[in-house]
Design a protein that fits this description.
heterodimer, A: 134 residues, alpha/beta, 5 helices, globular, B: 384 residues, alpha+beta, Enolase-like, domain 1, Cytochrome-c3 Hydrogenase, chain B, 2 domains, three-stranded antiparallel beta sheet, 16 helices, 47% helix, disordered C terminus
Chain lengths: 134, 384
């Protein structure tokens, strides 16, 4: 558990977003913001991840895959909803592709609102998540 | 006996959800198919429910990386329907933001490209330099991504003299970054070995598949909407359109590299020549009944908006043809005969943007012959 608190490994799950959140997540991982100094590492498979970072609206197509990915992640696991789209659908709420907010699909631990949130917001959100874990 | 090798839908090599099925014999790729649609949000339908004004923000959210390209193209198309011309100063501000966004988009691409060939140090450097372009955009628009600078009949924020000097200092830093990138591509033998003669798209093939943007220019097709059908302030600035003949990943990389310097040149000229006056029209007429077509050169190629108006407050039909839609078709011809290890960099070399693409129906004409792993297999199996 110590390792999880001090070094959470995140997997970034891009759903039906506009890429805006995705590039801000990557910006947070790169030198200007550099969440790696807090031990946050990006992982390519859910089997290695502690935190699932979900961006973008949950579309009808991606909903089942999202559940499946969540099931593949080992316990204990946490879900972060990054951006307004994941939280409530934002501008795409009235579209036919929208399949409901993320917290109806997965249990969400931290919400980071914004369109897109700044990388600082991601750092803050992860910090709050880790406080909660403690 | 060939096997199908699935990549995705969630995979580290992909920034977005997409499923790539590669048919392989040993290490060689002999066929393939792309399954898209995971990001389909129904934007074109959504646009018909919203007013002309709120659609600016919807257009921006088609793609977060090229959001100003989308909102500029949308605004220009609606302005054509309204029969108005935005003030000259607005055109210059649009041009500056457009090119600053191209800078960040291409630097982002260089980062991702370097990451795909396993050169993570360069990836980190590129993204560090990219922050200068984002600082510039933030100074002008107040936001890093999804800028919200365009409005119908002009722009929403002015560039004040102190912002101008800030932009100039950032441009100097970016120019240094471009020189560094050029050195990296030109002198690093390992990088060259990974990208030279890989993923070749011949000129004829490029024309047949109607590819656009740096993908076309990397194959020797000399097209650029900024020069061929100028809009905003492009008629008044001087720039070159870089073209490379090789058709491989290296050529597409070099085209983007030279475009970076051209963008800096365009922004400098636009800052110097910017006329005074208002930045937006005070009053807007109602859009006439009819149709209009607008096109701009987005960072990945030509972007087309078609809008039909029925005289109400919201458009009757909005059709968006994004550059990635046509460029994605060139992926499979590029990958044939290459090894699996080269697949990620070839995929990245066209700078695909699936959030743009997923709004159109891709008709799959290819029948999978041999053993195909179905999606449920994929879910049960290992992530590739």
């Amino acid at each position: 558990m110590f390792a999880r608190k001090k070094s959470p490994w995140v997997m970034h799950l891009p759903c039906g977003g506009c890429n805006g959140c995705d590039i801000e997540v990557v910006a947070a991982l790169t030198p200007r913001y550099d969440v790696e100094r807090f031990g946050v590492l990006q992982k390519g498979t859910p089997r290695h991840a502690d935190v699932l970072l979900v961006t973008g609206v949950v579309t009808a197509q991606v909903k089942e895959r999202l559940k499946r990915t969540y099931e593949m992640t080992p316990n204990p696991k946490f879900v972060v909803a990054f951006g307004s789209c994941a939280i409530d659908g934002d501008i795409f709420r009235d579209g036919y592709g929208y399949a409901g907010p993320l917290d109806e699909v997965l249990p969400v631990d931290t919400y980071i609102p914004g369109c897109p949130p700044r990388p600082e917001a991601l750092i803050d959100g992860l910090n709050k998540l880790l406080q909660k874990v403690r | 006996m060939s096997t199908i090798f699935p990549i995705g839908p969630f995979h580290l090599a992909l920034k977005e959800a997409a499923l790539l099925k590669l048919e392989v014999e040993g290490e060689r790729i002999v066929g393939g198919d792309i399954k898209l649609g995971y990001m389909h949000r129904g934007i074109e339908e959504l646009a018909t429910k919203k007013s002309y004004h709120s659609n600016i923000f919807l257009a921006e959210r088609v793609c977060g990386i090229c959001n100003t390209a989308h909102s500029t193209c949308y605004a220009q198309t609606v302005e054509a329907l309204m029969g108005i011309d935005p003030p000259a100063r607005a055109g210059y501000i649009r041009t500056i933001v457009f090119e600053a966004e191209r800078l960040q988009s291409h630097l982002l691409w260089f980062g991702v490209g370097m990451h795909e060939i396993g050169y993570d140090t360069a990836y980190m450097y590129m993204w560090m330099e990219r922050e200068h372009a984002l600082d510039m955009l933030e100074a002008i628009c107040g936001k890093r991504v999804n800028l919200g600078i365009n409005t119908l009949g002009g722009v929403r924020r002015d560039i004040t003299p102190d912002k101008m000097s800030f932009i100039r200092t950032k441009l100097d830093l970016l120019e240094r970054a471009v020189r560094k990138t050029g050195k990296l591509i030109g002198e690093d033998r390992v990088v060259k070995a990974r990208v030279k003669d890989v993923g070749v798209l011949t000129r004829d093939e490029a024309k047949r598949l109607c590819v656009v943007g740096p993908t076309a220019r990397g194959s020797g097709v000399n097209i650029d909407t900024r020069r061929d059908d100028p809009y905003a302030a492009y008629p008044n600035v001087e720039f070159d359109v870089p073209v490379e003949e090789g058709g491989d990943v290296l050529s597409r990389t070099l085209v983007r590299l030279r475009e970076l310097s051209q963008s800096i040149k365009i922004i400098r000229q636009a800052l110097n020549d910017m006329p005074g006056g208002p930045i937006a029209l005070e009053e807007l007429p109602f859009p006439r009944v009819g149709e209009a077509l607008g096109r701009v050169e987005a960072h990945r190629g030509e972007l087309v908006y078609y809008i039909r108006s029925d005289g109400t407050n919201s458009p009757e039909r909005v059709k968006i043809r994004t550059p990635s839609v046509v460029n994605n078709n060139s992926l499979i011809p590029m990958m044939l005969g290459e090894t699996i290890a080269d697949a990620p960099i070839i995929l990245a070399s066209i700078d695909p943007c699936f959030s743009c693409t997923d709004r159109v129906t891709i008709v799959d004409v290819r029948k999978n012959k041999e053993k195909t792993m179905t999606l449920s297999d994929l879910r049960r199996g290992r992530p590739a």
